[in-house]
Amino acid sequence: MEFENSFEVPLPPEDAWKTLLDIERIAPCMPGAELTEIVDDKTFKGKVSVRLGPVALTFQGTASFEDIDEGAQKATVKAQGADAKGRGGANANVNFHLEPCAAGSEVKIHTDLQLSGSVAQYGRGAGMIQDLASQIIGQFAKNLLKQIETSPKAANGDPPTGAKTSPADLDGGEPAPAPHQPAAPAQVGGMAFKVLWNQIVRSIKGLFGIKD
Hints:
Layout: E1 2-9, H1 13-20, H2 23-26, E2 33-40, E3 43-52, E4 55-69, E5 74-83, E6 89-101, E7 104-116, H3 118-122, H4 126-149, H5 152-155, H6 167-171, E8 186-188
Parallel strand pairs: 3-8
Antiparallel strand pairs: 1-7, 2-3, 3-4, 4-5, 5-6, 6-7
């Protein structure tokens, strides 16, 4: 399965690029994700928990940067993981690049996802996986925005370039989880499953509506 997704970051491309390559910083912004080990500057281990109706899945695996083009601000990430209960696995090749936009930067993502085992049956509906991915990415973008807004620079009264804030932005929504603390599993069905990572997990989860 292949997916196209995008989200905006309220920073100019050069700053957004540095932020997105800082895995320790952005991992806590991903719903249901936990960074468990930094193997080296390009390889990381972690786990992602996703809830699909009555089914709770936890993928444990490794992600690594296969190619980084600083000049073009694009990179390729290869990720692979297996369900903790042996119900299958997921392998994904994710290509992303940045483009300037009115808000600051737009991150465009292309994901090629392959599922195996029972997980492939859970996620046999590509549209459902796309929705889950969309929802996750949407929440990730919101958490990242809050993190950027509460950074030392923003706290000193100097908001990030391109940032658009309002009382609703500052007071509403859920705060980004603390570093290295896993966020609550993404809910499939209960939450507004309209666009959960329309990008990453669309390509990361084929996990749908099957009982344990």
